[in-house]
Structures are given as structure tokens and as C-alpha cells.
Amino acid sequence: MDQVLNLQRLCASLCTFAFLTACGGGGSSNSAVSAAEPVPISPTSPSQPVVTPMPIEVSSNGVFNGTWVMGSPTSDAVVFNVHSADQAGNVALDFGVNSLQYDQQLPTTALQMDKPLELRLQNLKPATRYFYRLRYQASNSKEWVLMPEYEFQTAKPPGQSFVFATQGDSHPERLKTQFDADLYKRTLLRAAADKPDFYILSGDDFSVDTLNPATITATQVRERYTLQRPYLSLIGRTSPLFLVNGNHEQAARYLLDGTPNNVAVWAQNARNSLYSQPAPDTFYSGNLEQVPFIGLLRNYFAWTWGDALFVVIDPYWASPVAVDNQFGGVSKRQSMWDVTHGDAQYNWLKRTLEQSKAKYKFVFAHHVMGTGRGGIELAKLWEWGGESQNGQLEFAAQRPSWTTPIHQLMVANKVSIFFQGHDHIWVRQKLDGVTYQTLSQPADPNYTLWNVDAYLTGDKFPNTGYTRVSVSPNQVKVDYVRTYLQKDEGPGKVHGEVAFTYTLP
Fold it and tell me: What is 162-504's CATH topology?
């Protein structure tokens, strides 16, 4: 028995090593990410729990080319989103609280070619780290292909420490200008090494607006979302993903035309099918609106984890006009007062902040008002701060049903940090007790200090990297972790080195 267990651990280690080697830094800048070479095992009965250790059969064939990412974690559940563009068959998932000792199993489920499959693990223990393996059986095979072992964490109660991580705009469509595939992989793998409980993307990760409005199709829009799957699986296999809507995604109300054949419907459906985002339930609150041809948008939502409240908001769906990047010749807004988060989202945000008893509160959006440049420089304006650009306080006239602007709402409810992307730079600012944290890009090979002139104050750093946040009952610690291509490392440029740290309170 010990020999079998040792063999299993060896095979798992070799498989994991091969995966990390294939996905690590260096080499060319091709956008494709190589799949791991899994280890086949003998088939097990789907109706029976997996007995560990399981004997491993050595085989020269059997590969799973698909990807999977997690989403919507709670205290007792998590969703696995599995997808393969060119394979069909069966998938199964074995899991347990001890490494390589799986005492639970999801029933075998059919996987269709190019159709995302959601596997929901339920009845899990709160505040518990689980280990799992995904298995795949091709439709023309009797063998099961065994993936490497990964792990995840269920939600923690107040009083327990945890880590989460977040990134700014990835822009994979900007290959050779603001995006390097190897650098993106190195960033995601470095973030995954921190074992964050979850990972938050701040938007502009699925740029639909660069497609030709005259010839755009639903397939092309969906490809913007499948393009990210191999990359995001590098961290999404261990850390569930949360997505923030950006200005380039074109998931926006102004594009709706009453039919299923428009960019907004295509974009949101691709997003919701390929990335399992939270819908309102007993763990998450969020948008209850049912949109024709989409259903629940899942575009704004909130949850509590440990001592922190997390709130994701979205200015794009509610606005009746193009907030920033207009698509297909549609006119841009005439006034920034035309841009809105909408009454429903505002009332939900107000209620969520006021009713939360969390020690720390974090709010995420792609950007202040969804457009412009800067952080606190924009926070006094329009429905965010109440003033027009001429300095006149016009909030009461422009938003008569709202009680207070969004910034003042965050101040009154002691929001700890507002996180935003959009500006392709890392900046820490503070206004009225609220920290405004702008996030760097994760894959810019130029390591550029973009839009620095828009920030009149603050701690400013160039790309590239991710932001790691450690939350404990006593404090919040924020680290800007710099990442580099191996060829670019040198004095003062160390991959994985922390460039700046601050703590709250």
C-alpha cells in the first residue's frame, strides 16, 4: 500500500512539474498556452466513492485539452466551469480535505464539445481547504485521464485571516503592444503561488470593441472570452474568479435592440456561460433584474468573507448611453450626468454598505464613473461626488431620488478601499478616509507608467504586476507585487518582489 501511495505522489508531482514548466516564463510571445500532460488511471464506478490510494496505469495516450476555472465560492459550495473546444466525453471530480485522499466524488457528467459545463460542489465544510482532481474520459475511450491535484478554500467566518489578489486590465488583444503572453503567465502563476482565496479581475479583459461592427458575429464575441480561458485557468484552478465589467467589454444597455442578435447580449451570455459568476442567493446579494435573452446579468454583486465585505459595481449596463468606448457608430454621451449606475444599483449599494457589519469594506469597479483618467481627481464629480465640471454642486437636481453621491456614501459607511483599473498604472491615494487604489496591468512588457499625469498625488508605480491583499482581524496589508519576463530581470527588477506595501488602519 505504501508503494502505491508513493507512486501516486510521484506521478502527481511529475505532472504538476510538467505543467508549471510548460506554462512558465521565457520563450516566445505566442498567445497559446500549452495544456498539462495528464496521467491516465483506470476507470472507477461513478456510483461509488473513490477509494484512495488508487492504482495508476501508465499509458502513452490520453490528453485533456480543455480548461476549467472556479467561480461563485461560498461557505459550503463552489462551481467548476469546464470547457473544451474540440473534445467530448465524460468528466468526474474527486475531492477531500486531505491531499491525495479523496473520499467524495461528483457523479460522472457528460461534456459536450465547445459547450461549457458547470459542476457544483455542495455540502462542503466552511473555512476548509479542499484538495481535488478532475478526471476526463474521451467518448471513444475506456480510460480516465487524471489531472494534477489542485486545492481551494471555502469561505471563512469573521475572525479568520485570508488573502485575495486582484489585477488591472490584461488586454490580451493588444499582443506585442501592451500584452506579452509569457509575462501574463508568469504573473498569474506568481499570484497563484500565494494561494489567494479568490482572484478579482477589474475589467478590460475581453475587449469586444476592437471587433469590426460591420461584420461582428456572436462567435467572434465569444472568442474574446475563450481567449482568456487558458491563461485564467492558471490561477482559476485554485482561486475562484470574480469579473468586473470594463468599458471595452461592450456589455452595456445602450446596445440592446429588443432582439437576441446584438453585441451586448452576445457579450454577457459569453461571459456568464464561460465564467460562473454569482447570482443572488443566501450568500451573495446582487442584481435581480431579468434581461430578455440573457436572464440574470450577474454584473453587480456583494459577499462577505472573513472580516471583509466585497462589493462589485458596474456603470455600463445601467447607462442609456455609451459611457466610454461607443460601438458601431452610436453617439457618445453628451454629458457625464447621462452616465449612471442606475437607481436599482445605487439603492442596492446603499443598502449593502449600510447593513454590513464587516470590519473592512472593499468596493470594486472598473473606474470612477466608468471613464476618464485619475482616481481622487474624479471623485468629486457627477453622481460619484456631486459636482459638475464647472464646480457647481448639481447632485440634488440631477439625482433627486438619491440621498448622497457615491463617494460620500462610501465615506459615511467607512469603506476601506475602492479598487479600480482602467488607467494602466499602480497608484495609492486617499480621500476623506477612503483609499483609492488603482491597479496595474499584469502583462505589459513595456513596464510603462501610463497616465501618470492624471494623478496629481499618490504613490505611483509602473506596470507590470498584481496586487495582493492580506486581511486579518487586526489589519489589512496591501502589496504591489512586480512581475517581469526572465530576460528583463536585473538590479531593481526582481520577479515577485514587493514594490510597495501599506497597511490599514
Answer: Purple Acid Phosphatase; chain A, domain 2 (3.60.21)
- pTM listed for this prediction: 0.88
Average pLDDT over residues 43-69: 51
CA 264 to chain centroid: 20
Identity of residue 450: W
The C-alpha atoms of residue 405 and residue 395 are separated, in whole angstroms, by 7
Task: Encode pLDDT of 127-167 as tens digits.
Answer: 999 999 999 999 999 999 999 999 999 999 999 999 999 99
Q: Which among 447, 430, 428, 448 has a CA at the least distance from the CA of 438?
A: 428
Cα 315 to Cα 345: distance, rounded to the nearest angstrom = 9
SS3 letters across 158-212: CCCCEEEEEECCCCCCCECCCECHHHHHHHHHHHHHCCCCCEEECCCCCCCCCCC
- Mean pLDDT score, 398-423: 98
The C-alpha torsion from 48 through 49 and 52 to 57, rounded to 10°, is 40
CB atoms within 10 A of CB 280: 15
Position 109, amino acid: T
Place of cell 479568520: 160
pLDDT at 262 over 90: yes
In the chain, list all ranges with CATH 3.60.21.10.
162-504
Q: CA separation (Å) from 15 to 37, 104, 144?
A: 7, 22, 15
Lookup: cell for 360: 473592512
* Residue 23: all three cell numbers together: 506554462
- Measured on CA atoms in the order 91, 97, 103, 107, is the torsion positive or negative? negative
